Amino acid sequence: MIEILEILISPNFWAAALRIATPLIFGVIGALICERAGVLNLGIEGIFTAGAMAGWMAVWLGAGLWGGVLVAAFAGAVFGLIHAILTVPLGLSQHVSGIGVTLFATSLSYFIYRTALPDVSSPPRIEAFQPLDIPVLSDLPFLGPALFQQTSLTFLALLLVVATGYLLYRTPLGLAIQAVGDNPSAVESQGLSVYAIRIGAVVAGSSIMALGGAFLTMSAFDAFFFGMVNGRGWICIALTVFASWRPGKALLGALLFGAFDAFQVRLQTEVGSFIPGQIFLMMPYILSIAALIVVARRADYPRALLVPYFRGQR
Amino acid sequence: MTGPTNEAETVLRLDGITKRFGALTANGEVSLDLKRGEILALLGENGAGKTTLMNILFGHYVADEGQVLVGTGRTGLHELEPGSPHAALEAGIGMVHQHFTLAENLSALDNIVLGTEKLSSLTSAHAAARKKLKDLIERSGLNVPLDARISQLSVGEKQRVEILKALYRDARVLVLDEPTAVLTPQESDTLFGTLNKLAKDGLGIIFISHKLAEVMASSHRVAVLRAGRKVADLPTAECDLRKLAELMVGHEIVETVRDAGSPGAPLYVLDKVSAGHGRDALHEIDLTLRAGEILGIAGVSGNGQTMLARVISGLVTPVSGSISLAGQNETHANARKMIESGLARIPEDRHRDGIVGAMSVSENLAIETIRHPENQRFGLLRFRAMLEKARQLIEAYDIRCQGEDSQARLLSGGNIQKIVLARTLEPEPTVVLAAQPSRGLDVGATSDVHKRLLAARERGAGVILISEDLDELMRLSDRIAVIHRGHLSEAEETETLDRGTLGLRMAGHGGEEAA
Q1: Is B85 touching A (CB cutoff 8 A)?
Q2: Residue ranges of B 163-202 with Cβ closer than 8 A to chain A
Q3: In Å, how far is A71's CA from the nearest CA of chain B?
């Protein structure tokens, strides 16, 4: 018991939790924007991979770190646009299109990586983002080490949570996004274009998702390798439901998952001698499912989620 | 009612509008003029092309021929850009659809200002909007709680939000599609009072309707559409009900009449039945249906009628209370058991629950008796017998289809209803449950439904008629009960009731079930 408490009060534990949560924050915010507009984006897993590969490769080819971030966001936007065109004006199944985008984006990323680097055995490294050292703040007890061992991308993620909240609840565009996910004819009857708002939301959401991938290759690690996204995109889809499509709760959900994950690693070193390690690896997922069961039963789905809109039909 | 003077300016002109969907001509060379301060009723049956015409006006569809012209004060008439709701709004045309176009997750205020501010703006100018709306509400009497979420508002309040949406954009023309379909008679009166006031202030108003009485009472002028063409356009003062009805239908109307009945013993009894939860719940329903009578259930849509129909037909088992049919306790009977015990179910949504669209007419006709020996032997279907039976029923019930093999979903609503009637009434059931049996049907198909229900009553069956159409209920029912928020009032003889009393009870006032 004492060991568990010790884990929970150590700043290093919370620093790790926030680091693990960062890509998830990008992913959930991106998925939330798409779904608020009524489009489920199962392309997320592939968009993570594309963002990870594109950002890393741009830097490896000589772009600056922030240049890499922009390239990743652009790659996400392109795949988002494919998904948006298939599902919004053409009204195809959002599930099928999303899984298609995931397969396409993942394979294309691997293909480009292999084509550029046909015969390297260990992936080349780049100079990744370094932890930000802010004078005074970094020296605060507890909070300092927990918060300020992070890179700029983590702060960008936190900023995005606030910005998305402001956008959704305080601006005319946010109202339109909320309305289009609830009843598209409310938007059309007020002279706005349902397609433009939905496509815009999916493209913007997808480029934010891609930043989650970029964080993996440009901050958490410093190289790209196959299978590195490892289901993080799917976790974000579940976390979106857990968050009831609210940015604040999305941050909370991502942190919770990050904390579970950081906790299981530390617990393994404490009691790993007599419990198989796989049990610990399962823990964050099992806890996520449990949390979903509790929360999602009364989740307030956007009413038009998954429902394509065609003009003049009602 | 007196309309605007002759020299009043024209605010809207439809000029030779034609719209075709494949071989069907939904609108054929329709021309209309609307003046400032005028209330124009657009009258027509379901499928006459009223809604298509208004969708063209509002830019949801583009007309194949003809144009829409709008007057904007000094500059005279000019053409409206086709196919653009945005252009229609800019030109001062506001539309209140039959199905509300409101985002339920936003407040009334948010819904009203949606689309009036630049999307690139980083702040929302709600304070100014609130001030303008307070003023509008005061002048028009359209009272709504601006900060309440739409999902918490009543149907009448939602409709007022829709009208405010148009007024907030300084509409000069207001179009309302079947505005009274979801309102109680009292709410309808209030609505028309408001519309009258708005017209006096100079708004041009078009309301679409197929209800003759409200057209007579509340319009200055009537345009009648039939089969996509305008067949009449005249001042309301020069019309009477009979003339309008004939213009609308195209021939003289013979009304179905109910003669005095002689109800027998109780057939179907609900005793303190509760079921469902939330907005759908039923609370301790008592209902007694006697042989040889039609019992009408009146109520505004969404007050528990759907759940009541499901409980009566065995699709939902009550939480408490008991049900008996012909003296047998059937509280826990499922739908099949109910049918076998002699209940016929005419479902509310005939397309979804009345037929299997992908199956043939003959299969749909046999679907409830598929286990009977005449339809199967040793678990194998007897197609020849089914087809033979289908041919008889198609003949007897006048089902218009390509043949007994044609897919049921290809039929019109009226003919689909005839399939349902033939299937459920042919075995001579003892109890008939008819939920919204004439909803969406034209006059001919409606009178066919009415005749069949009266014939069932004649033969001694009991009929439960759930309807939102008070005229239909008063004409057919021997007794009427009112359902409101899941409570059912005691049934009373139709002769002792009038529309006003029923309307009050539908709104939850009066009667012992006032909730």
Answers
A1: yes
A2: 165
A3: 24
Same domain flag for B177 and B286: no
Cβ atoms within 10 A of the Cβ of A157, count?
26
Residues 6+ apart with CB under 8 A from A212: A22, A23, A24, A25, A26, A27, A30, A48, A51, A232, A233, A236
Nearest CA in chain A to B165: A190
pLDDT at B123: 85
**Residues B164, B419: Cα–Cα separation, whole Å:** 43
pLDDT of residue B3: 59
B115/A190 touch (CB, cutoff 8 Å), yes or no: yes
pLDDT in tens, B296-312: 999 988 889 999 999 99
Residues of B in contact with A191 (CB under 8 A): 85-86, 88-90, 115
Beta bridge partners of B483: B488
pTM: 0.81
Percent of chain A with pLDDT over 70: 97
Is residue B491 in a domain? yes
Residue B37 lies in a domain: yes
Residues of B in contact with A182 (CB under 8 A): 103-106
The total number of structural domains in chain B stands at 3
Q: What is the pLDDT of residue B203?
A: 94
Mutation site, A175, A192, A198, interface B, largest B CB count within 10 A: A175
B207 touches A at CB < 8 Å = no
Q: Is B106 on the interface with A (CB under 8 A)?
A: yes
Q: Judge whether B270 lies within some domain.
A: yes
Quick one: pLDDT band at residue A314, thresholds 50, 70, 90? Answer: very low
Q: Residue B437 above 60 pLDDT?
A: yes
ipTM comes to 0.89
Residue where a domain terminates, one of B214, B249, B284: B249
Give the range with max mean pLDDT: A205-209, B189-193, B386-390: A205-209
Side-chain-facing half-sphere of B113: CA atoms under 13 Å = 26
CATH code of the domain containing B60: 3.40.50.300
Asked if B450 and B337 sit in the same domain, the reply is yes
B281 and B304 within one domain: yes
pLDDT of residue B12: 93
Query: Could you tell me how many CB contacts below 8 A there are between chain A and chain B?
Result: 85
* Structure-token match 């936003």, residue found: B106
Domain coverage including residue B210: 10-92+172-249
Report whether A73 contacts A206 (CB < 8 A).
no
Do B232 and B287 reside in the same domain of the chain? no
Task: Inspect the interface and report whether the beta carbons of B102 and A186 lie closer than 8 Å.
Answer: yes
B145 and B208: one domain?
A: no
Specify the pLDDT at position B512: 46
Q: Give CA separation, B416 vs A204, A242, B350, B353, B465, in Å.
A: 46, 44, 7, 11, 19
Q: Residues B92-120: pLDDT tens digits?
A: 999 998 889 999 999 999 999 999 998 88
* Chain B residues within 8 A of A302 when measuring between CB atoms: 105
**Are B449 and B502 in a shared domain?**
yes
Q: Do B117 and B162 have their domain in common?
A: yes
Q: Which residues of A touch B113 (CB under 8 A)?
A: 172, 175
Please give the structure tokens belonging to residue A237: 């889809």
Interface test with B, best of A190, A197, A305 (most B CBs within 10 A): A190
pLDDT tier for residue B233 given thresholds of 50, 70 and 90: very high
A35 touches chain B (CB under 8 A): no
Q: Are strands B39-43 and B10-21 parallel, antiparallel or unpaired?
A: unpaired
Number of H helices, E strands in chain A: 13, 0
Does the CB of A178 have a partner CB in chain B at under 8 Å? yes
Last residue of a domain, one of B170, B201, B227: B170
- Pair of tokens at residue B478: 């021997």
In a domain, B370, yes or no: no
